[in-house]
Write a structure and sequence with these properties.
Pfam families: Mito_carr. The chain has 8 helices and no strands. With 213 residues, the protein is mostly helical. The chain has one domain: Mitochondrial carrier domain (Mitochondrial carrier fold, Alpha/alpha barrel), CATH 1.50.40.10. It is globular.
Length: 213
């Protein structure tokens, strides 16, 4: 999989499993998408409310709140992303319920969290970066466009700030590559490797690890 371009990946998925191949593991992915947003908002708002009286500034507050909320997301993303990765990268006879039952029977709850360090690193850096970059851009836009740091941005301006923040936050793609590799290896029963060792191995074998960025 790692040698494919984005276009080749789409073509190969279609050849292997048809149009339904693009929705493999959609069940756990829906659970992940529904729950991780709730976890993020609850944790982020709690941290922002706790730090606001400290007058740390919007950018630093956003970075810390985003990082903490991102780490909290690991609780639900670990099991969900592992099951999706197992279904997508495993043999054709792997299905969601069988994988859940097998993993629970063999390893218990711990078995659902291979690559958890990579997920935590990715989510913490992702939301810290996204929140921090977005708040920085918002602040600059308020001053540049309205001359007042307390001004309200339009919907289009807010969207633009979020787009810039999200784009800049993709610097952490190596963590996502490591997460997929660690979970795929766990699904295949390979010896466990740390996140650092995984990233180092991928870099040595394939060069810069920004696959799928």
């Amino acid at each position: 999989f790692t040698n494919e371009t984005t276009g080749q990946a789409f073509v190969n998925v279609y050849k292997r499993a048809g149009i339904t191949g693009f929705w493999q593991g959609v069940g756990p992915k829906m659970v992940e998408s529904a729950s991780k947003g709730a976890v993020l908002l609850f944790a982020k708002e709690g941290l922002i409310n706790a730090m606001t009286p400290m007058n740390m500034g919007p950018t630093l507050t956003g970075v810390i709140a985003g990082a903490g909320a991102g780490v909290a997301q690991t609780s639900v993303m670990g099991p969900c992303t592992f099951i999706v990765t197992a279904v997508v990268t495993g043999s054709g006879d792997v299905n969601v319920m069988n994988k859940i039952k097998t993993t629970w029977a063999e390893k218990g709850i711990k078995g659902f969290y291979p690559g958890a360090t990579a997920i935590a690193a990715r989510q913490a850096s992702n939301w810290a970066s996204r929140q921090g970059f977005t708040e920085f851009v918002r602040h600059r836009m308020k001053l540049a466009l309205h001359g007042d740091e307390n001004a309200r941005l339009s919907v289009a301006q807010e969207a633009a700030a979020g787009t810039v923040g999200g784009t800049l936050a993709t610097w952490n793609q190596p963590f996502e590559v490591a997460r997929i590799q660690m979970q795929a290896a766990a699904n295949e029963g390979k010896p466990k490797m740390s996140m650092v060792s995984t990233i180092s191995t991928i870099a040595k074998e394939q060069g810069p690890i920004f696959i799928g960025v």
